[in-house]
């Protein structure tokens, strides 16, 4: 399998994952291989075939606009690493 | 060189639903933080979102109100990014198949009607709200998942004032259609502004700057009024504009560059696998169309053209729909709509405000105002008498004619009686009578007043004037 043009650093950055140079090399090849495998689909002639939005042939699965009970706040915040005044506390966001 | 501004707006507004977009949590402003949340809007693993049908109806209805096409196929996509306001690390939105496309908004600007084209209006979910503290930031997910409509305009706006009027017109339409309450104080409407400048007459667009997350219309106007000269100045001084996102500092009154990330935004949109596509059929769309309302501008033009009332009066009936409806009923078959508009706007509205009641709770039918104007025009009652009739009407209901009879308010137009009152006034006031003879026309008003007084307001003032002149000047 020829190495594909997979930009492992770009993908790692988008996913906010820190990779060592060794990992970059290893995963870069692995992910490139996967892409190459999927690329086989490009060989198919799909002219005139409409793209599907979903594999299941269903549409308009909707709900009525009704309020249902929410979670108790203690439950909602149960897994928060930090909380204060009913808020999820996160590291300071700087723009 | 002369430059022109090219401005487009992305307007986000929260839809008026009871529950959120994909779960049953309440769509409610001002609740205690994180009390309107559930596994779906908190993005917990293993949950499935289900779209709110009312939100989809309101989206299609907005499409019709903005003269858009409502395609027979639409779908949801995931927009991926990391930020603490979005707990799933993606926002559900519509990317390449939005629920509405290609429309326009007509609005009044600079003494004429302007048209701004609408690229699309697509449905998405609102995100959580961050608050920032010294060391940390806090997140409240009550807002996360509230249905949010993003209305994207073409870059058809040429100035800050035009953008301001467009936003107000859009807001009026959304409120009219029951789409959104558009309460700015509650953050129900937010705007991103795209601005570029180019030498006047140039076809090619200049470098685009985006100002994000504006939450007042006046802020949008001020930001544009700052940003356009800044861009022109940069070019004139030989500088280069970069495509960037800027932040509006409302206190300082300036825009400033937000730190640009190494990588441009790459949202990696893909179809939301948890949601089925949308295929609105004819019956469903017909049901939506049955909820259509008359657009504010159309209503205004109709009132001015059909009833011959002033634009200013028409604005009152656009701003107050029930009052306008009352006027339309009152005016049916009348040959004096202007007078009816006056009564409705000046008298009825004032009484309603004072009594803290509404048109729906009135004790009399709209036809009563038509009758009142008729008997005034016929000279049956004086304007003072009419006020009395109206007050009685407002207080106890009934019909103007029966009130006039019951209270004996009919004007006396009988010439014998009038002549007697006039002669008495002339005899009692020789001074003013001389004044009239000597050409002091104002003196007649004094005599008229005396007659009105002695007749206890019943004399027909116009006839009194004529009779006095006849008696004095022979």
Which terms would index this structure?
heterodimer, A: 95 residues, mainly alpha, Histone, subunit A, two-stranded antiparallel ribbon, 3 helices, 7% strand, B: 474 residues, alpha+beta, Arc Repressor Mutant, subunit A, eight-stranded mixed beta sheet, three-stranded antiparallel beta sheet, 15 helices, elongated
- Contiguous low-pLDDT stretches of chain B (5 residues minimum) are none
Q: What is the overall number of helices of chain A?
A: 3
Please tell me what the overall shape of chain A is: flat
Work out the helicity level of chain A: 25-40%
Give the H and E element order of chain B.
Answer: EHEEEEEEEHEEHEEEHHHHHHHHHHHH
Helix-strand pattern of chain A: HHHEE
C-alpha Rg of chain A (nearest Å): 22 Å
Shape of chain B: elongated
Q: CA-to-CA gap between the ends of chain A?
A: 42 Å
* Overall pLDDT of chain B: 89
Oligomer: heterodimer
| Count of DSSP H/I helices of chain B | 15
Helix % of chain B is: 25-40%
Largest interface: A-B, 36 and 57 residues
**CATH class membership of the domain at 1-43 in chain A:** Mainly Alpha
Rg from alpha-carbon coordinates of chain B: 32 Å
**CATH-assigned fold name of the domain at 1-43 in chain A:** Histone, subunit A
Tell me the β content of chain B.
15-25%
The unreliable regions of chain A are none
Count the beta strands of chain B: 13
Structural class call of chain B reads alpha+beta
